[in-house]
């Protein structure tokens, strides 16, 4: 970036930081929300579309607008709160910050991942999976995410752990967990009904579902020896992996050649049927802050179709799974092998645990269940400051 442009951007940034809010925007109850985003697949679906659904269930007027819709983006006459998902401070977002400041409209930054810490280079093994230019761009985005977070009136994170990591930004921080939408539940119900009608399989299947290519290589590698030991102990069992995952050396061996199935990533609307086609879901994680800040989505999606999960005993799953009742948590090699072999050998345990997990998710982890909580967060953020006070 030329130095003159950099200087002008720095000056604008400083001005936005101290800009007084001089225009009193009309206050409506409930406030009108605008979600601003760029398309990021599952992240956008869970953090924008599902929050939009919660807002509408709670009675808010809300819309979702892509960042590149410049014709409408800065028209804030009918907006009382701006909710941005994982956006960096950049050419399109800086004017939005300034416009929000001028109109005294609170701006909320939403995060479902550790997207503001440059140590992601280490935590997500970026140098293994990307070329140097891409790594530089990802780290630049992390820095600019942090800048926009500092200019926001509040932060909303998907987990308590992630909220604790954001404490150094010194912004009011709230937790709104990832939950399943109404449409997901419809597809999951169909898949669950199909699963309930099927007899227990002679060859039970361990399933792993991956999104972006190779980003979970290291997660699967943490339980490579445990998966190999499980397949040796349970000769009828198979392993089915969706998405591009590099097999750990323990599994990429001749004894398992015919027992490991590779399948492509599937559309989210078809995903419940595919999850219902396995018998045990796995959710391993590398132990680092980036992984601990993630959500228990793999557990939620499997539970919705009655499939039990064995997951890493870390925050995302430790906070969601009732160990021994709605799933199993594991840390050591021995714990992973014991949980997997027990479930593979006992169809009735799989059915019972899957039923408990499904009831748990339907009771606590849906947009219907969380709408009131989300509404409370938004109402608190959108409330006008006390007379004589000013938002910082």
Describe the fold and architecture.
The protein is globular, with a radius of gyration of 23 Å. The chain has 2 domains: 3-179 and 368-382, Rossmann fold; 182-365, 3-Layer(aba) Sandwich (Rossmann fold). It is 45% helix and 13% strand. The protein is an alpha/beta fold and 392 residues long. Mean pLDDT is 91; it is low at 21-25 and 385-392.
Total number of β-strand segments?
12
Radius of gyration: 23 Å
**Largest sheet strand order:** 2-1-3-4-5-6
Number of domains: 2
Task: Based on Cα principal axes, name the global outline.
Answer: globular
CATH top level of the largest domain? Alpha Beta
| Structural class label | alpha/beta
Measured as a percent range, the helix fraction is: 40-55%
Strand content: 5-15%
Quick gist of this model?
By secondary structure, this protein is an alpha/beta fold. It has 18 helices and twelve strands.
SSE blueprint:
Blueprint: H1 3-18, E1 33-37, H2 42-57, E2 62-66, H3 70-73, E3 81-85, H4 94-102, E4 107-111, H5 120-123, H6 126-129, H7 132-151, E5 154-157, H8 160-165, E6 173-175, H9 182-197, E7 205-209, H10 217-221, H11 224-233, E8 238-242, E9 260-263, H12 271-275, E10 280-283, H13 289-292, H14 297-303, E11 309-312, H15 315-318, E12 328-330, H16 333-345, H17 347-364, H18 367-382
Parallel strand pairs: 1-2, 1-3, 3-4, 4-5, 5-6, 7-8, 7-10, 8-9, 10-11, 11-12
Helix pairs in contact: 2-18, 11-16
Output the keywords:
single chain; 392 residues; alpha/beta; Rossmann fold; 2 domains; 6-stranded parallel beta sheet; 18 helices; globular; disordered C terminus
């Amino acid at each position: 970036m030329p130095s003159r442009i950099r200087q002008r951007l720095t000056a604008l940034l400083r001005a936005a930081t101290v800009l007084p809010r001089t225009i009193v925007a009309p206050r409506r109850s409930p406030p009108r929300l605008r979600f601003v985003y760029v398309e990021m697949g599952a992240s956008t679906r869970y953090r924008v579309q599902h929050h939009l659904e919660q807002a509408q269930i709670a009675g808010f007027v809300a819309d979702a607008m892509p960042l590149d819709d410049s014709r409408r983006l800065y028209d804030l006459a009918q907006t009382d709160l701006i909710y941005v998902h994982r956006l960096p401070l950049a050419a399109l977002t800086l004017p939005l910050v300034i416009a929000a400041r001028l109109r005294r409209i609170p701006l909320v930054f939403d995060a479902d991942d550790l997207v503001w810490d440059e140590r992601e280079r280490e935590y997500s093994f970026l140098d293994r999976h990307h070329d140097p230019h891409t790594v530089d761009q990802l780290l630049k985005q992390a820095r600019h995410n942090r800048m926009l977070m500092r200019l926001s009136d509040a932060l909303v994170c998907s987990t308590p752990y992630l909220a604790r990591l954001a404490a150094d930004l010194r912004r009011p921080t709230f937790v709104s967990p990832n939950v399943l939408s109404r449409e997901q539940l419809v597809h999951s119900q169909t898949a669950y009904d199909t699963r309930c009608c099927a007899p227990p399989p002679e060859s039970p299947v361990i399933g792993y579902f991956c999104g972006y290519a190779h980003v979970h290589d290291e997660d699967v590698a943490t339980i490579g020896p445990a998966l190999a030991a499980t397949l040796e102990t349970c000769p009828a069992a198979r392993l089915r992996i969706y998405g591009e995952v590099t097999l750990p050396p323990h599994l990429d061996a001749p004894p398992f050649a015919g027992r490991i199935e590779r399948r492509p990533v599937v559309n989210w609307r078809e995903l419940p049927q595919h999850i219902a086609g396995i018998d045990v879901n796995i959710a391993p994680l590398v132990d680092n802050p980036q992984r601990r800040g993630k959500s228990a989505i793999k557990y939620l999606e499997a539970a919705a179709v009655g499939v039990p999960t064995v997951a890493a005993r870390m925050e995302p799953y430790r906070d969601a799974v009732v160990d021994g009742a709605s799933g199993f948590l594991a840390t050591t090699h021995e714990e992973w092998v014991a949980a997997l072999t027990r479930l593979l050998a006992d169809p009735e345990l799989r059915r019972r645990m899957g039923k408990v997990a499904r009831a748990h998710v339907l009771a606590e982890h849906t947009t219907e269940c969380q709408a009131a909580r989300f509404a409370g967060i938004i109402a608190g953020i959108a409330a006008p400051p006390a007379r004589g006070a000013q938002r910082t």
